[in-house]
Write a structure and sequence with these properties.
By secondary structure, this protein is mostly helical. 72% of the residues lie in helices and 0% in strands. The chain starts with a helix and ends in a 7-residue tail after the last helix.
Length: 259
Amino acid sequence: MIYIKYLNMHIKSLSQYRASLWMMIAGQFFISFFAFAGIYLLFERFGSIDGWTFGEVALCFAVVQTAFAITECFARGFDMFQRMIINGDFDRVLLRPRSTLSQVLGSDFELSRVGRLAQSIFTLWLAASWLETSWSVAKIITLIFMIFSGIFIFTGIFILGATVCFFTVQGLEIINIFTYGGREIAAYPLTIYSKWIMRFFTFIIPFACFNYMPLMFLVGKAGGNDALYMLTPLLGMLFILPCIFVWRFGVRRYLSTGN
């Protein structure tokens, strides 16, 4: 598979600068650690937020950070796509008998995010142990679906941001509201925000499908709708389909940079 070959090439190139790689990984670990420490200090002061305990929010935070770290590691090509447009590299992509999606997806990796991923997995383990709930097979499967759903949603947003470059050359900063800003918003249950924010991130960009609604099932707040709340991560994964459609629309209208 071409994506695996791209990944192997990138790992070989990074192995030439191992000290730099390990320092970046350590930096990413501590950046995420201090973000989690901020949440801890918040709950140390106030006890709970809108009825949500520290363990519940920690689990939500860990799921979002894990999904986003994996997305940044392996879908970085779309986040950095504007360089490919500006340098004229996308013209070569169009000449190759491979999918443009797979080529752009494999054009860049950010393996330094492994540090953030390690911290997120550690936080996930801590939150699961702090949570006052009995872990069943259904809940473990739901937790795994939550992470995969988050990966699909964040990847979809990266794809939308890359598609903008077909029409403006440079990516718009407003996209960062839904990637990096969305990561911060989704780190807490959506009920703590205003209703319009909750509706937007439920029906437009479905963060609620992978952080809030399945979390309700995990902590026993689903109100008897367990099956519905368990399946919402699968609905969130569907978000990537219209994003791919928009990408293909942009590719068909790409007229080259003229290099």
